[in-house]
């Protein structure tokens, strides 16, 4: 086992939390059951790492095998680092019939044409996602396995999620993706965050949608309510309306755990009580960032409790409806 | 009206969700109640100043030694208030240092774990005077306390590291109050500390025993945070504050944090426009004239209404947690950082005032 493989393994072991070690190694399957049993997982991580390195050396494992292990770990624990979303546009006629083998071949060949010395691994995950791991080298050096880029794409959808991509390699990767999926363009989708699962669920609408209905409740019967009951009824109605509108905008039940949304505002200041500012021609430059452990649930609660007036403003409803969390708002284009 | 919404501490008035004239008017009429009058009947009625002079950029390097200033700026301090110290003498500082050292050593022996990161050998305490910060004749001079220590296995020539520092000060304290105190009391109501919590407790404990005083946390309340937002924006006329950043939290589940950052030039224009609308103020010498809290309120409302126009979310339903700019940052939980010595005096005068408001008598 060469030094690079050892180094890679040691680095990887530092990343994998102790609780997940055993299951990840089992899934990897490159060590025989016997060898795996010989590892004592109650020891310190440092000790386990040393023993594991020894076992891998015995089995003559290489960098290729270690990168497999890394890929298994990242695939099972995707909510780390920062994921950026891209959207493929202008599909060609046969785009929808691109299937896995074809995509794999095409992607690998396009990317190696664009850059020498890249190492590409493609795997299909159980949930139909295609995972790609790219280690970048260049004409002079070997692929750098320590800083690999990960890409997730669901075939037949226009969305691509990318992690750890340098600006130098960005155009190459995007071009390879566009060509291999038979599209003509790709653009940034203005949706990023740490939790890949949240970004994916948001875009693929994999949460409970609430569709607006014209008659939300059964028609009321004629009632002879006295004045106090009428007040309670009005309050209850108002509350029910807010809850309904909040649900229609954001969804029902558990929502994807998006963690932040950023708005760059470059609009004019308009306030009837402040003439001086309202008469200004220049925009009032400011930015607003919303953050929460689950942003969509927080916003939904704002709407249902009245902190956010309903109907919810398009700026906020664009987050779930358009599946993005980065916006630049100017006066000309209300939802850039 | 919604019963489930939380009220911000200083607004005693029921709010309507839509931003209309009556909403603003009702805040102003209730302002008297929200001025932070101290609750206990006092010999001297202390209240939060409704009117305040705008902070001027002061070059205090002539009054205060640069190395002292370096200790104070660009550091985040935890604020507490302390009641007047009985029989504290600025001339006895060496004695106090010895006594505090001994106290810390004794407490350590009793098994009180003082976690300063690794085993520590001995703690060496020093008390010194930071001359020049006291502004008026009634202000006692600021006292700095530092605790230094050497790790257990350090070499002889390694210098001891400062593991904890704190300072007691009174900057532009209310002269009426200071003069009303009995002779033997020294009022240094503002206590700033930085370092391990264990050491903070020990130092406070020793001060409490020795000078018969009481400590309490000095939270920077909504009013003070709003003052700082306005004052720092005002400073942009002299010194570039780069951005005005405010962080609110809204009481929803899970809690929502809103970081609202305004370009400093635009913030200043908004601030100026709220000041101009006060008819009595003369245009010329803006900086000599007092700033009224009602102007601060109008400024904040301007910011919040711009926010509301876009998001239809009422920020006043939440709580302002933090205000920061290139000049420093202030947090609700009583943490302050001053990045520029030019405005040190002004900001700490404001904080001294807050500390004095907490005095029980």
UniProtKB/TrEMBL annotation, chain A:
InterPro entries: CENP-NAC/CAD_complex, Chl4/mis15/CENP-N. It is found in: Chromosome, Centromere; Nucleus. GO terms for biological process: CENP-A containing chromatin assembly; chromosome segregation. GO terms for cellular component: chromosome, centromeric region; nucleoplasm. Keywords: Centromere, Chromosome, Nucleus. PANTHER family: CENTROMERE PROTEIN N (PTHR46790:SF1). Belongs to the CENP-N/CHL4 family. This is Centromere protein N. The lineage of its organism: Eukaryota, Metazoa, Chordata, Craniata, Vertebrata.
TrEMBL record, chain B:
It is found in: Chromosome, Centromere; Nucleus. The keyword Nucleus applies. The keyword Nucleus applies. It comes from the Eukaryota. One of its GO terms (cellular component) is chromosome, centromeric region. Residues 1-20 are annotated as: Disordered. Keywords: Centromere, Chromosome, Nucleus. Belongs to the CENP-L/IML3 family. This is Centromere protein L. It comes from Poecilia formosa (Amazon molly).
């Amino acid at each position: 086992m060469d030094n690079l493989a050892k180094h890679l393994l040691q680095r990887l072991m530092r990343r994998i939390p102790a609780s997940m070690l055993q299951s990840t190694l089992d899934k990897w399957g490159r060590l025989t059951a016997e060898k795996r049993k010989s590892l004592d997982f109650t020891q310190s991580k440092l000790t386990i790492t040393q023993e594991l390195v020894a076992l891998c050396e015995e089995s003559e494992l290489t960098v290729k095998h270690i990168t497999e292990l890394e890929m298994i770990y990242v695939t099972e624990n995707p909510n780390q680092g920062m994921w950026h979303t891209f959207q493929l546009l202008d599909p060609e006629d046969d785009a929808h019939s691109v299937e896995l083998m074809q995509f794999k071949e095409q992607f690998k060949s396009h990317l190696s044409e664009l850059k020498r010395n890249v190492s590409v691994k493609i795997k299909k995950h159980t949930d139909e996602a295609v995972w790609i791991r790219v280690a970048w080298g260049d004409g002079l050096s070997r692929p750098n396995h320590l800083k690999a880029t990960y890409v997730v794409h669901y075939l037949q959808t226009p969305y691509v999620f990318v992690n750890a991509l340098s600006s130098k390699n960005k155009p190459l990767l995007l071009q390879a993706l566009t060509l291999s999926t038979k599209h003509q363009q790709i653009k940034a989708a203005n949706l990023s965050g740490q939790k890949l699962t949240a970004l994916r669920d948001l875009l693929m609408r994999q949460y409970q949608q609430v569709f607006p209905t014209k008659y939300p409740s059964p028609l009321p019967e004629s009632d002879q309510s006295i004045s106090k009951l009428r007040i309670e009824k009005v309050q209850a109605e108002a509350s029910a309306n807010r809850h309904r509108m909040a649900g229609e905008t954001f969804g029902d039940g558990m929502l994807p755990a998006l963690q932040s949304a950023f708005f760059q505002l470059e609009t004019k200041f308009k306030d009837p009580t402040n003439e001086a500012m309202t008469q200004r021609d220049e925009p009032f430059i400011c930015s607003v960032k919303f953050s929460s452990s689950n942003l969509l649930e927080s916003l939904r609660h704002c709407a249902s409790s009245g902190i956010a007036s309903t109907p919810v403003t398009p700026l906020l409803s664009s987050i779930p409806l358009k599946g993005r969390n980065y916006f630049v708002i100017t006066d000309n284009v209300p939802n850039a | 009206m919604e019963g489930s919404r939380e009220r911000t501490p200083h607004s005693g008035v029921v709010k309507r969700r839509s931003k209309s004239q009556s909403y603003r008017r009702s805040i102003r009429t209730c302002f008297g109640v929200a001025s932070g009058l101290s609750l206990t009947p006092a010999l001297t009625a202390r209240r939060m100043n409704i009117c305040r002079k705008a902070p001027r950029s002061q070059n205090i390097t002539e009054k205060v030694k640069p190395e002292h200033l370096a200790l104070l700026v660009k550091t985040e301090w935890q604020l507490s208030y302390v009641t007047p110290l009985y029989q504290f003498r600025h001339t006895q500082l060496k004695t106090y240092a010895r006594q505090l050292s001994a106290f810390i050593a004794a407490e350590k022996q009793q098994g009180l774990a003082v976690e300063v990161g690794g085993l520590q050998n001995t703690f060496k305490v020093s008390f010194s005077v930071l001359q020049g910060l006291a502004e008026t004749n009634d202000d006692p001079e600021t006292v700095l306390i530092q605790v230094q220590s050497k790790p257990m296995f350090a070499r002889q020539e390694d210098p001891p590291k400062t593991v904890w520092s704190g300072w007691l000060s009174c900057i532009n304290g209310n002269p009426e109050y200071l003069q009303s105190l009995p002779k033997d009391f020294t009022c240094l109501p503002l206590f700033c500390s930085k370092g391990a919590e264990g050491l903070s407790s020990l130092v406070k404990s020793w001060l409490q025993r020795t000078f018969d005083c009481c400590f309490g946390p000095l939270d920077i309340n909504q009013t003070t945070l709003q003052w700082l937002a306005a004052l720092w924006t005002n400073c942009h006329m002299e010194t570039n504050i780069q951005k005005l950043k405010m962080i609110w939290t809204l009481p929803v589940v899970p809690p929502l944090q809103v970081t609202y950052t305004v370009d400093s030039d635009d913030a200043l224009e908004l601030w100026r426009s709220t000041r101009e609308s006060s008819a009595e103020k003369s245009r010329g010498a803006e900086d000599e004239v007092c700033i009224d809290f009602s102007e601060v309120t109008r400024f904040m409302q301007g910011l919040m209404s711009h926010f509301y126009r876009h998001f239809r979310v009422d920020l006043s339903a939440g709580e302002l947690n933090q205000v920061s700019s290139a000049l420093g940052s202030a947090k609700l939980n009583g943490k302050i950082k001053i990045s520029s010595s030019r405005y040190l005096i002004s900001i700490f005068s404001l904080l001294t005032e807050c500390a004095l408001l907490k005095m029980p008598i």
